[in-house]
């Protein structure tokens, strides 16, 4: 298999990244801004996705790319598997409300295929998931955003230094137990209960190309993957590999 660094030795060529479980493309946009050419894959129809994408099951698609050698066109893979299984929203008391116990865990099979590619990768999950290594944790306050939205990343085949966690400036705006609290952050999930408007969500997360609430609430801020992508490309520069 062609090694990842070989792809970057082509003068003037942007490294190509595969964005799995791509949703509306927030992760992909961050990587694109960092310097990657992005292709996506999502099982749902995503007309707002801003890059070329394959509609289909991410695991099936990745397995096919590995089997056919198509994966060799890529230099990096990012994956954001659905997080409902065993996350903080689907365990404990929430399980009795019908949230937990019915969702498939896709992290382990995703990691297994990513390891087969031999490529560097990142897997993104919210807090509460024990199935990934927490090699990197990012927060909206690190990037001056209007959301907190902690996310953990497992990094395969490379590493990055964890940046300092910046103290939060206040509360997340919204109702808690019947009482309204104001604050500098909006709640990027759900609807009602003092939740932000679509425009507020777009502004808080730095996402302009979709106005679909479901896509916004499932997204991570592009600033996160811009940080990751830029850091990974910097490691190539340090190794003397042309990007």
How would you sum up this structure, described in words?
The protein is of the alpha/beta class. It has a domain at 15-164 and 221-238: Rossmann fold. It is 27% helix and 16% strand. Helix 2 links the parallel strand 1 and strand 2 (37-42). Helix 2 (26-34) runs parallel beside helix 7 and helix 3 (58-68) runs parallel beside helix 4 (107-117). It is globular and about 55 Å long. 38% of the residues are buried.
Provide the descriptors you would attach to this structure in a database record.
243 residues; Rossmann fold; seven-stranded mixed sheet; 7 helices; globular; methyltransferase activity; SAM-dependent_MTases_sf
Looking at this structure, what is the CATH superfamily of the domain at 15-164 and 221-238?
Answer: Vaccinia Virus protein VP39
Poorly predicted runs: 1-9, 85-101
CATH architecture of the domain at 15-164 and 221-238: 3-Layer(aba) Sandwich
The CATH topology of the domain at 15-164 and 221-238: Rossmann fold
Count the E strands: 9
What's the alpha carbon Rg, rounded to whole Å?
18 Å
Percent helix range: 25-40%
Strand neighbour order, sheet with most strands: 3-2-1-4-5-7-6
Shape: globular
Protein name: DNA methylase
Keywords: Methyltransferase, Transferase
Organism: Streptomyces griseoruber
InterPro entries: SAM-dependent_MTases_sf
